[in-house]
Structures are given as structure tokens and as C-alpha cells.
Design goal:
By secondary structure, this protein is mainly α. Helices cover 82% and strands 0% of the residues. The chain has a domain at 24-142 and 189-231. It contains seven helices and no strands.
């Protein structure tokens, strides 16, 4: 059976002729999708930059550069330092501050530096984690919001049929099609958000693991340096 071109699927027409509650649901899903993609592009750029900065700083740190010289270089732009640079800057600054005091043992200096590094690392992870929760919410809620629009649209369609003496598939199909668009839009908003949430969460976990490993290694270096100064 041939299909009339004028009766072919037109998504914009379905959206335009949908009932007000369904239009509101669609508008909400479109807004959630736009916000999700804005976060996805921004977070992708941020995490790629953080990963590159961590690799670059690790290379500088283990290249044999003097710690004091490296700290002086990092502290010149301490306000802009992120990632490992901020962790190193916070730890070495606290270590140097405690070392300048008289009668301060090695253990106290190292523990102070470790506390400062943990605080800096926590701030960095919070910064990298920001807005990722929104993606999880969009991914989990959007299908249900779309389903609500679908149920409402179908309910309105069948309610309209009650006033008709005779009903055919041609009278039911447009209303049901309008309603099903809401479900499709819910999935369209949810799928990228779920994928991005899983990807970004894994990236943040990897960076957090790198931060933890760096803190352990740097603490060992500071401990050896503190013991040498005590024995000297």
C-alpha cells in the first residue's frame, strides 16, 4: 500500500501539534539535553587539559630539577596552578614553613605537608568532579520524564476518542505519535549523558589515583630531606 507523502512522519509537526503538557515535557528535555552537551564539551576539555598538565609536571618533577627551584617556578603562578602543581606547591610551602621554625622534628614537618597536599588534592578532585552529577541526573531522570509525556499524550488521545462515534487508526495515530516523540526525546537526552558520566567519572578516578601516588612519592622525598637536615 502506497504511503502519501503528505502523511509521512514530520517530527516538527508532531511537536507543534502536541498538547501543552507534552510540549512542556519536550521543552524540559531539550533544555536538559542542551545543558548536558554544554557540560560534556567543557568537561572533556578540562579533563584532557588536567591529564596533560599532570603528565607534564611529573616529567619536570622527576627530571632531577631542584625542588626549591621548581617550587619557586610554580609559586610564581600559584593562583593559576592546578592539578599536581597545586598539590606540590601546597605541600612544599607547608614543609618550608614548618622547617623555618626552630625545634620542629621531621615527622611533624612531613605530616604538615601531607595534610596540605590532601587538602589541595581534595579541592582539585572537587573541581574536576563539578557538574558530573548533573549528567547522572539527566541520564537517570530523562527517560521517565519522556515516559510521563508519552503517558499524558496517549491519555489525552484516548480521551478525545470518547467524544467520537467512530474511531479508526487514522484518528488515533497522530496523537499516539505525538506522545511517543516525548519518549524518544527522553532517550536522546539520557544516552549521551550516561555515556559522558561514565567516561568522565573514570577519568577523574584515574587522575585522583595519580594524585594519591604523587603525594606518597613526594612525602617520601620530603621525609628523607627532613631526616638529612635533622642529622646534619
Amino acid at each position: 500500500m502506497a504511503v502519501d507523502v503528505n502523511q509521512s512522519l514530520n517530527i516538527l509537526a508532531l511537536v507543534w501539534h502536541a498538547s501543552l503538557p507534552v510540549k512542556l515535557v519536550m521543552g524540559l528535555l531539550i533544555a536538559a539535553s542542551v545543558a548536558s552537551w554544554t557540560i560534556i564539551f567543557g568537561k572533556h576539555r578540562m579533563l584532557d587539559q588536567a591529564s596533560k598538565q599532570a603528565a607534564d609536571f611529573e616529567e619536570r618533577f622527576w627530571s632531577g630539577t631542584d625542588m626549591s627551584a621548581l617550587f619557586k617556578d610554580v609559586s610564581q603562578h600559584a593562583g593559576d596552578a592546578t592539578g599536581m602543581e597545586s598539590i606540590f606547591e601546597a605541600g612544599f610551602r607547608e614543609f618550608a614553613r614548618l622547617r623555618s621554625r626552630r625545634q620542629m622534628d621531621a615527622r611533624t614537618m612531613v605530616e604538615g605537608a601531607q595534610r596540605a597536599m590532601r587538602a589541595a588534592a581534595g579541592r582539585e578532585v572537587d573541581r574536576l568532579d563539578q557538574n558530573i552529577e548533573f549528567l547522572a541526573n539527566v541520564g537517570s531522570i530523562s527517560p521517565y520524564v519522556g515516559l510521563f509525556g508519552t503517558v499524558w499524550g496517549i491519555m489525552i488521545s484516548f480521551q478525545g476518542l470518547a467524544n467520537m462515534k467512530s474511531a479508526t487508526i487514522a484518528t488515533v495515530a497522530p496523537g499516539i505519535s505525538e506522545a511517543l516523540v516525548a519518549t524518544a526525546m527522553g532517550l536522546f537526552a539520557a544516552i549521551p549523558a550516561v555515556w559522558a558520566f561514565n567516561r568522565f567519572s573514570t577519568s577523574v578516578d584515574r587522575l585522583n589515583t595519580k594524585f594519591d601516588a604523587f603525594q606518597e612519592e613526594f612525602s617520601s622525598i620530603l621525609q628523607r630531606q627532613a631526616h638529612i637536615e635533622d642529622n646534619g
